[in-house]
Amino acid sequence: MTKILITAAGSYGDIAPYTGLGARLRTAGHEVALATHDSYASLVRAAGLEFRRLPADPRTRHAATAGTGDARDTAQPGRPSGPSGNRDLMRQAAAFIKELGGGLADAAREDTGLLLLSATTAPLGHHLAEAHGIPYLDLPLVPGAPTGDFAPVVSGGRSLGRWGNRAAGRLSLRIIDRLYADASRDLRARLGLPPATPRTVRRRTEAAGRPVLHGFSEVLVPRPTDWRPGLDVVGNWWPWHAPDARLPPVVEDFLAAGPPPVFIGFGSMAGGEGERLSTLVAAALRRAKVRGILQSGWAGLSAGHTSADADLLTIGEVPHALLFPRMAAVVHHCGAGTAAAGVRAGVPTVPVPVTADQPFWAARLASLGVATAPIPFKELSGDRAVARLSHALTQATAAPARRDHVRTAARRLATEDGAAKVLKAVTRLTEAEPPPN
Description:
Blueprint: E1 3-7, H1 12-27, E2 31-36, H2 41-46, E3 50-53, H3 58-65, H4 86-107, E4 114-117, H5 122-132, E5 136-138, H6 161-191, H7 198-208, E6 212-214, E7 231-233, H8 249-256, E8 262-264, H9 274-288, E9 292-295, E10 312-315, H10 320-323, E11 329-332, H11 336-345, E12 349-351, H12 358-368, H13 385-398, H14 400-414, H15 418-432
Parallel strand pairs: 1-2, 1-4, 2-3, 4-5, 6-7, 8-9, 8-11, 9-10, 11-12
């Protein structure tokens, strides 16, 4: 038995997959704590994991800025949003990371036997591992290492050619190094470590050839041909939900009252635009002659923003694993986890990417034939927005070939067990390296 600390920071999609992974490790006999933001404490504890607090809670920041004209997605590396200048976004991201660094140091205990690190926490977690002699494993949810196969996921999903893709990937890493510079300096000083830049630590880690297990499926992104050994794509680990969990009765009643509806939700995106989006979505659903379930999310989608309509239902947080298979199609921002959940459910997607890695995943789904052509979120405005969304809804729900494609992909996903591969790697690490004193 090993005392494992998982660290993950960001919005729901950055946290939830690690609850399922943590529960799997706990079932295997390990003691597992998950360090993340206060907003997800109940989610962590429900999965049977110990909760440890990380600062810089993006949900709290969102609530504080809602309605002020400055509500944005989490200011974290690789996730800029909105039309403001790059320097302003860089400052926000650096401030988020600096606050996060101190919290990570507090979350690690003397008896921690293994660190499991998300993409956002890994550049800081490496310093903790060095200071305390703790073995660690990087577990990102998106591809981050440069490759000629595709451009960096935050660049919009458009290939720049093999040389250009690799060059852009290296530049992306240097930008991330800059974002972590202040936080790394402060954290190393606190831990009593000699000065070292994030670039130095990153290169040292790369040279050691340490394993990195990526939590997505090769169904969506085949492992790049030019990645070094040790960079592996193992498949998704899915958010935890209780084995006996059921959809709320109001949802079941709505589903029973008519044909399968379309799910529409934007997760942690589009804060403060709920009324406009709700009106637009309701009009598009009516034009396409399909029913809809609106997930409120940070945008605040609500059927209450529209005229009374028996074919619309508003819901809060519901496990995608329970809801999506009952849908005719799903419309969402195409975060990594939500994109995979739609494929897993075997239902077509209408991608409406907002920022960061979302255009990348949207393009992947479309290229697989399991989604319509993406509708960039910024284009969900103006006179043609209703017509465009309505047309996409019709394409998603009325094209048998697209449903056949997604069902084939879903069968392939069902054969994968990403959490089992992480468990195997954890066993190798903990048996090879003695626990700290």
